[in-house]
Design goal:
It contains 8 helices and 10 strands. With 280 residues, the chain is α/β, with parallel strands linked by helices. Helix 1 packs parallel to helix 4 and helix 2 runs antiparallel to helix 3.
């Protein structure tokens, strides 16, 4: 049994909050550059150029890529052979978010009550997901999720008879309805199966997978490729000004479900699809 003090978790989360907001993942930046080279529409090409320059400036100047530094979503993969000493994990994570958003000069966007709308002042609490895994390590991933794109996300309880064509239609309709609002080019996370809440979780988790990789199951790999092609034919384009680049990638995750249901969730992310991980 390995022991890890909660202070290490706090320090790790603090660092990840800052780095995730300053540095765009390499796979996302690479896809931006690839689409920039392939984009034929002058206005779209110019916007992609400005997006890439913004990413470079944020990295070199150590400042947030976007003014919306998001609500901190934290994925904790906890090895079952780890014993955390000191504070509760949840308290340690939230303390890390508090310190990271304060020391990193990141915008605080969380309100204490969804109706009263009073800002908590430190971007806590985070939304924390726990997964118990084998081993004696803790993997922490911080995902700052901006709400320009989060607000465009949807979930639908399809009927089994809707089948794959119903799934495709719902995903494409969701992206088309989102239009320019989520600051395209987007990254689209899709969750299929499970229950109402599980599908939404899968869609969020799908955004963590590098967008230059595909689902390991062949039929879903083909579905990802097909949907990305169709989405990029919608003509929304970067920031909604038209062109071939509406989405940089689409990631699908699935889970077994009930005989009577076909839950599908679409979690849309903007071109600033940020996340940073570290293993303790």
């Amino acid at each position: 049994m390995r022991e890890v003090n909660s202070k290490v978790i706090t320090e790790t989360v603090k660092k990840l909050c800052i780095e995730a907001n300053y540095y765009l993942p390499k796979d996302v930046k690479s896809e931006l550059e690839k689409f920039y080279k392939d984009e034929k529409w002058d206005i779209a090409n110019d916007i992609l150029d400005k997006i890439i320059k913004n990413v470079d400036i944020a990295e070199s100047e150590k400042m947030p890529i976007c003014q919306d530094t998001g609500m901190a979503c934290v994925f904790v993969e906890l090895g079952q052979d780890v014993h955390v000493t000191g504070d509760l994990i949840e308290d340690a994570v939230n303390e890390g978010v508090k310190q990271g958003y304060t020391e990193g000069f990141l915008r605080k966007s969380v309100v204490k009550d969804p109706i009263d709308r009073v800002n908590t002042g430190d971007n806590t609490p985070a939304v924390i997901y726990y997964d118990i895994v084998k081993g004696e390590n803790i993997k922490i991933t911080v995902v700052p999720k901006g709400f320009g794109s989060e607000n465009m996300s949807k979930i639908k309880m399809l009927k089994p008879s809707d089948g794959i064509e119903g799934v495709k239609k719902f995903i494409i309709d969701t992206v088309e309805e989102a239009g320019p609002n989520p600051c395209p080019p987007m990254v689209v996370g899709v969750g299929i199966g499970g229950t109402f809440d599980r599908a939404a979780f899968l869609a969020k988790k799908a955004l963590l997978r590098p967008i230059d990789t595909y689902n390991t199951e062949k039929k879903y790999e083909e579905l990802e490729k097909e949907l990305l092609e169709k989405i990029n034919k919608l003509g929304i384009g970067p920031q909604g000004f038209g062109g071939r680049t509406t989405a940089l990638g689409i990631n699908i995750e699935t889970y077994p479900t009930h005989i009577a249901g076909l839950p599908v969730a679409v979690n849309i992310s903007c071109h600033v699809t940020r996340h940073k991980s570290e293993i303790i």
